[in-house]
Specification:
The protein has about 100 residues and is of the alpha/beta class. It is built from 5 helices and 4 strands. Helix 3 crosses helix 4 and helix 4 packs across helix 5.
Length: about 100
């Protein structure tokens, strides 16, 4: 099993109470995907297809785009199961946490 996250997820998870050393240790065992123009354009198309607005769902769309191009089977743990289900479609198994 490989754990994959978007580089943007690091930004989203950071706050004042985060233990930076612990975060860095955790990130050392995870594959971090960079966001390039192709990723941004595909994520933008996902937003258009689902009717969601980029201002609120931009990071979710990037994560969904990355999940959809991983080798199957793909499982996503998320606190936003409804929106991620819409963005990912049937190829990604969504597990609410």
């Amino acid at each position: 099993m490989e754990i994959v996250i978007s580089a943007l997820t690091i930004i989203e998870a950071t706050h004042r109470k985060i233990d930076r050393a612990r975060l860095n240790w955790l990130l050392s065992g995870i594959r971090i995907e960079h966001v390039d123009e192709a990723t941004a354009r595909t994520a933008s198309a996902l937003l258009l297809d689902t009717g969601l607005h980029g201002h609120k769902y931009a990071l979710d769309a990037v994560v969904a785009e990355m999940a959809s191009r991983q080798p199957l089977p793909v499982v996503m743990l998320t606190s936003d199961a409804d929106d991620m289900s819409m963005l990912c479609g049937p190829t990604v198994r969504i597990i609410p946490i």
